[in-house]
Amino acid sequence: MVPLPACLECNTTVKSMKQWDAKSHYEIKHGQTYNQMNPGFRRERVASLITSLQRQQLMIRGVTDDNKKVLLVDSM
Q1: Which residues pair with 13 in a beta bridge?
Q2: Long-range contacts (CB closer than 8 Å, 24 or more residues apart) made by 50-54
């Protein structure tokens, strides 16, 4: 199963990996908000959202690795 892309802003899944679906989601859900931001603030906001996503992914990987270790020890 291929994971679906998620919106950094609202954490909802986008229908597919196609550019049209991502663009449509952005314009419908977040277009007005981001169009009103100045470019510098918008860049900072996107960088902050990316950093937040990376932290979440690291935490999930850590939990998954810990679970694997517990299963290995438990099966011995």
Answers
A1: 6
A2: 50/8, 52/8, 53/8
Statement: residue 14 has pLDDT above 80: yes
- The residue among 58, 31, 20, 61 whose CA lies nearest residue 9 is 31
Q: How confident is the model at residue 72 (pLDDT cuts 50, 70, 90)?
A: low
Domain extents in the chain = 1-36, 38-76
Q: How far apart are CA 67 and CA 60, in angstroms?
A: 11
The SS3 assignment for 13 reads strand
Q: How many CB atoms lie within 10 A of CB 42?
A: 14
